[in-house]
Protein 1
Amino acid sequence: MLSNIIKKVLSKFILYGLPLFYFLVAVSFYLGTYDSAQIKITIVQIGGIALICSWIMYKFETDCFYNIKKNIVVLSPIILFLFSGLFSFFHSPFQLASLNELIKRIIYCFLSVIIIDCFKDRKSLKRLINTLIFATYVVCIYAVIQFIDTRFFPAPPAKGLDPFVWRWAFGERIFSTFGNPNFFGDFLVVMSPIVLALFFKKKSFHLLLLWLLIAFSTIFSYSKGAWIGFGVGIISFAFLFASFILNIEKKNKIILILIMSLFTISIVAGGTLFQLKKRPDSSSFRVFTWLSCWEMINTHPIIGTGIGTFYLTYPSYRRPQIFFIEGMHNTESDHPENEYLEIFYDEGLIGLGIFLLILVTIFTISFKNLAYFRRKKISDNTVSYLQVGLISALVAQLAHDCVCVSLRFVSSGVMLWLLIGCIVAIALIYSYRDKKDTQEEYIFIPVAVKRIFQIIILLVSIYLIYIFYGFFQADVIHSKAIQVSKSNNFSQSIELYNQVIKKNPSFIMARYFKANNYNDRWQKDDPQKAIEEYNKIWKLAPNYVQSKFYMGLVYTKLTMFFNNLANKYVQEKNEQAKQEAIAKRDESFKQAVKFFNQYKMIDPIFAQTYYQLASLYVQSGQFELAKKEYLEHINYPRKLQEKPHNFYKEDWTIRRKPEYAQTFLYLGGLEFMMNKIDNAEQMFIEALKYAPNNLDGLKSLSTVYIKKQDNAKYKEIVKILKQLYPQDEYVKTLKENI
């Protein structure tokens, strides 16, 4: 009696819980966390663990692990991919970071196995697909709301049709519940062929309407990768539909496929090229990232570096052009914009080979299944149409993921393994139909053993759910901590970051912000606390964002502190204390220079690094070294015209003219201080080339001409200053003649 109840409850939980799981992953978002997609991650973690543990307990209860053995040929590539992730985790140099990706790998692989094992009839598959269709309606309707909001309502902070604070987060690009147009596009890419296939079978208006909503949403996501995937999905569908469903002559099939392909390629290629012209940086960003990733792959090409570690090692390989393209320095690229390159980097040729083996296995099974439908003349049933849609969706997603990172994000990652599971499940439904012996064999497990294992699994499940809910809480607290630190309440924000780290030790960003808060607060013991925290960060991520730069700032402040302390002891005539302070000052100086130089290797175009180093050298009387820093910053873009960067040439300084103008101003000021007046004049003139009529540049030139007693040039500059900046206090003091 108890056994029957357990079987029924667990079975219902799996058959109804998994569709609900997919629905929630698609439609959920929560803006109270730092990452709006954290709720999706938490659903995948908690829901995935609940489903996996329920399935294992169910298999123990039914004594039916024989099904796994029976389908081992089909399941073995998936199992191998799971073990590849485990192996990669154990040899990873950054296991805490690798653990996050490994958890997703485990959940993904088990999801496909659960679908293959439990969704073995049309009714359960229909429930799953209908739930996805309902979810697609929800996200597409919200996408239309976003479209109307961004076209016919005022921009934030004014209120619009979209009631949520993330409205206009990507300008006119719509992203629905996914928080990112590319991830939204990936979901649409998957659902488009499935909905299209079911429409051709059922001729239902609501399916046609949904497909039109999908097409509309895909277009206005302005995601070039999604457009490519969408087009590939249509072409794949046309090929499979004509080859396995339509009962027409071969000649007509070829004509139909060619027409569909040419039409789709023309529209998608035209739209993609148009967007590339509007936003060329997105393509160059990917090319530079792929080049860096290829260099990373070559460090461990056979077994890879470690699952989920790309973002930790990437800063050492990142091309400097990326900083020009992004226009920022305090961000990181978590993934290389290509799933195959990332698997290659993570797990080497072995892992990539296993992933490709999965795809070969799935396509082999699916095409044999479609051939079976055609041979048995049952290709007009709903399942055969659905199989065509699922295969087309898989092809489309795999194409999309050649130029996007979406599989590394849960909303898209779960969809790949759903496609794999459903394709195999449909194939297996029919693979045993013609066999006489379809009875399941059982492996006898004593009741006591069942209950012990089930209790252990249940306790493990509860513990993991508690941990993953803590990750969600950590993201909420992290968001609060950022807001508190913005109000300069550093003590409270540090306490909040401590809570974040306690709940999620792998949350590197929280440690980074905590260290920066010590740096900003700068109370007693804060310098040492900041240093300790940065060192902890580097154990997890050796070159995390701008941590080396901020460590340089800590030692710069200490240099100034000990220098002032030494001057104080000079006045007090305390020789011993003075020498101790000088020793600490000199050591802090060396450390500051060391960390700034380390950051230059990671980010060689960040102007502030050069300015900080030059300032240190000026304060220590090393003027030539200070000049060298300014010149290095000015000259660096020229290096990007040389090997190995010269495959793509651009005058990168154009993107940052004000920044280079400032460097010339600083260099001119240094030359002026060194009494090299002609050099100073030339530097100020160069600054004005980058920033014409810049107030500081014009004022600096006026001081040069006063020094040189060049009245003609002085009068010319004064005239410009009087015209442009008559209210400036310095300009008011200038006379008509020297």
Note: The chain has 29 helices and no strands.
Protein 2
Amino acid sequence: MDGEIFLVLVCALAVAAFARWRGWPAPLLVTGVALAASLLPFAPTLDLDGHILLGIVLPPLLYSAALDVSFVNFKRSLPQIRRLGIGLVLVTTVVVGLLAWWIMPSLTLPGALLLGAIVAPPDAVSAAAIGRRLGLPRRIMTVLSGESLVNDATSLTLFRVLAAILAGATLTVWGGIWQFVLAVVLGAGIGLVFGIAMHQLRMRVDDSVLVGTFSLLVPFGAYAIAEHVGGSGVLSVVAMGLFVGYHSPKTSYATRQQERPLWLSADLLLESFVFAYIGLHSPALVAGLETDDVPTLLVLTGAVLLAVLLVRPAFVYPAYAWGQMWARLRQRRGAASGRSAPSGRPRYEPEPVLSWKDNAVVSWAGMRGVVTLATAIAAADLAGLDERSETVILFVAFSVTIATLLLQGLTLPLLIRALGVADGSDEAEEERAREAVRVASAKAGAEFLAAQRIEWEAKHGAAGTKVFDDIAERFSRVWADTDDLRETKKEASDAAAPSFADYVALSKGWLAMRREVLIRERDAGTLDEEVMRDLLTALDAEELALDTRSAVHPEEGGASRD
């Protein structure tokens, strides 16, 4: 089995790499190639335990996604995200469950609702990749990314409650609601505890390799502990990722630079494996179907697919209109009472406005993905399903996932272009934000350099003052060249002339000051968090180059690396 898993991983990665190189949807190609390979007589047959699949696949995928979400934008769009991530999942679960129970009563109502919970959560990874490539406005990207985090937690909590009922647990309606609430509260609380601990580790440990290794392990711990005590493991991992991602700018640049490619690689590896598993498992799944069930099963699959396609837009537009009406009402009440938040801002800030075109894109970005597949595979082990029900749920879940990836995934770019949603409207706003940051940085920089000049003059005398003035002038070009610094030092006759280590310390202070400006503007709400991350990446590159220069010229007394 170990050799077969390794073979599947290598082949899936090779196919995914080819798809990425050609610009094709990797999940579809990996599934298709695996399906074709499964027909070969020597194809590997994998049979994975559902508990293991959920515990290994979901924590890193969810943690990685949460790290990339802008917490500020997430908070601002929370009403929309909450409606889609909770309300839409509940509605989809009920609609699909009742429909499946009507078409195939042998599933029983809890089993049909379990199927509804499995197919309810869309996976925004594919939609986000398409939107990022085509330049979707950030207001849409935030809603899609945030929804994917919340709806996973909602659907998996529902899945666990329904699986317990199918496994023989006795739950009343109020008992189920209480278990749901308890899972949310415990999951979020445990996630925050892990997030705080992980942030402290990132702040206090300078070894980026060690921190990166811990970051790979901790999501599994947060998920396992939350699940063990009755909380939502998914919500625990999401809460942890949001906390760590928000505070990431305060950590060392080496940690950030090491972390991102690490998680991108983990995402590619796990997603490729899951979709390869679908393709390899599909023929055995079809072969296990009873002949008498095939017509009913095809009708059920078509009905569920139609339901998930239609329920989403039917929910998105009325829910958005209701949210806007409610937000205006709360604003009027807040203005009439004169109440405001401690920061002086209005207590009720309006949620971002989406046009009907924006909502059309949100409505069609409902491709199912890894969570649906993983929970479908785990259903047999967690819910104690009989073989027939297991086959039905697996077949429907697999079919709906592939169909939405084909139908919505391939046509979403056409819809975005046809509606003209990707109009570059964020660019002007981003440029204004960057200009505001430049102004704030110039002001803070002037104060920083004024204070440092006094210290250099006291430490190095006239020679230090001259070198300092030259360096300050060159800061506009990122940092002075080493050879330029040597020439400046030759002109100084003072025995206490500044060393290269002095220059490195000054440069690092300059970079730290600019980071503080970015974080301050982000916290004040004047700089979008994603723009802040772009600017932060540029600063990280500057510091990496500075440390690299220090290592190349040890005779200058370079500073140590982060």
Note: The first helix runs from residue 2 to 22.
